[in-house]
Write a structure and sequence with these properties.
The chain is α/β, with parallel strands linked by helices. The chain has nine helices and 22 strands. A five-stranded parallel β-sheet has the order 6-13-7-8-9. The structure holds flavin-adenine dinucleotide (FAD). Flavin-adenine dinucleotide binds next to helix 5.
Length: 373
């Protein structure tokens, strides 16, 4: 395998099986795998080119931010956006003893995780000394004598470093220019073999679509584990013919912010209704360990199922520990298409340091079973 670093592809000639490079070379191929990832969304405001204004798209960006802070000794960070990368970076800046302010145009962080989890995170950020400014719209970033200033409709926020973290969109410029079909969220449409609309051309990872096993719909989930699995599938198929199918995704994802673990899998009520289900949901509060065991922490689980079929549709959770393994049970159940009747009686490992003899996942599923007709 030859790896050419620093080789930017500028166009794809799918009729003649070759790609053009910025170095003016062309390279021929028998099979082409497109894995161009995402591009970061930019706030539509002036000042993003100023020194000290960053995005975090990859490891190089992270190194640039750290070098900047080491050289300039920043004390105040302003983060624009409130997705999981914004939250992870709020923790990162705080660990460097910086004062952190998050500016967000909505009410609560990580909107796809719902208001219960959003509120928990917001409260936790306050406990950790992070200022979370809801309903705040930045209008410009400006250089000042003392550093940077982020102007907003709610006042001016001074900073030594500004991070814009507004999410990503699929990087499909090459594919689009070459006439490849696009699908969900504008990502490159692929089938279960990773094939695009042109024979011999595959696409994987953040630039490509996938199939949701719960909704059965085409979806776009720019996540590292999905990219790894799709890459394996398309790589095998490109090399050896159609030998492996990508089994699809259930939307399992997680992150940590300070002392909270946050995770979700599957559909929430709104997405479930949009996908044609008749969703019903429960919320339960439990403990991360058996109540009798020292150190038990509160843990919230929300779960959603289809009233007609009893099928589990999704769950999300937040707490100081034990959240990700519980949601991964849900992810496995979703992958297998289990009903809440099945999930309520799963045989799960139990010992007091890890939870009660009934997991919150079983309890939530049994509550949902009780709501079935
Ligand atoms: C800060 C951060 C934290 C994250 N944390 C998590 C996490 O905890 N869990 C999780 O599941 N996911 C996480 N992700 C998402 C995860 O990193 C991505 O889903 C994953 O990297 C996607 O892999 P990929 O190969 O599709 O794209 P990428 O890793 O983005 O790779 C795309 C590559 O294509 C190159 N490229 C683009 N255009 C061209 C061109 N024209 N010519 C040549 N090369 C080109 C790019 O330079 C890049 O190297 C995180 C992302 C970020 C930014």
């Amino acid at each position: 395998v030859g790896v050419r670093l620093g080789a930017e592809v500028t166009s794809l000639d799918l009729d003649n099986n070759q790609v053009a490079l910025a170095s003016d070379e062309t390279m021929a191929y028998d099979r082409l795998v497109i894995a161009t990832g995402t591009e970061a969304r930019q706030p539509d405001i002036p000042g993003q080119d100023l020194q000290g204004v960053f995005q975090l798209r990859n490891l190089d960006d992270a190194v640039r931010i750290r070098s900047f802070l080491e050289k300039n000794g920043g004390r105040r960070a302003v983060i624009i956006g409130a997705g999981f990368i914004a939250l992870e970076m709020a923790e990162g800046f705080s660990l460097r003893d910086m004062a952190v302010t998050i500016l967000y145009r909505g009410d609560l962080p990580v909107r796809p995780f719902g208001p219960v989890i959003g509120q928990q995170i917001k409260d936790h950020l306050a406990e950790k000394g992070v200022d979370f400014m809801s309903r705040t719209k930045p209008t410009a970033i400006e250089q000042t004598a003392g550093g940077l200033a982020v102007k907003t409709d709610q006042g001016v926020f001074e900073a030594d470093v500004v991070l814009t973290a507004l999410g990503v969109r699929p990087n499909t410029a090459l594919a689009e220019a070459a006439g490849l079909e696009l699908g969900a969220a504008g990502a490159i449409r692929v089938d279960e073999f990773g094939k695009t609309s042109r024979p011999g051309v595959y696409a994987v990872g953040d630039c490509a679509t996938s199939r949701h096993r719960v909704s059965k719909l085409e979806t776009w989930l720019p996540l590292g584990d999905v990219a790894n699995r799709q890459g394996r599938v398309a790589g095998e198929n490109a090399a050896a013919g159609d030998v492996r199918r990508f089994p699809g995704v259930v939307g399992a994802q997680c992150f940590k912010v300070f002392d909270l673990q946050v995770a979700k899998a599957g559909l929430d009520e709104a997405a479930a209704a949009q996908s044609g289900f008749e969703p019903m949901a429960v919320q339960i509060k439990g403990l991360s360990r058996a109540g009798s065991y020292p150190g038990a922490q509160p843990l919230w689980i929300e779960m959603c199922a289809d009233k007609r079929s009893g099928k589990l549709l999704g769950a999300r959770g937040v707490g100081a520990e034990g959240v990700v393994e519980r949601i991964n049970i849900v992810a496995t159940a979703l992958f297998a298409g289990l009903t809440v009747r099945d999930v309520g009686w799963l045989d799960l490992a139990y010992a007091p340091p890890f939870g009660g003899s009934w997991s919150q996942i079983q309890i939530a599923a049994q509550k949902l079973e009780g709501k079935l007709g």
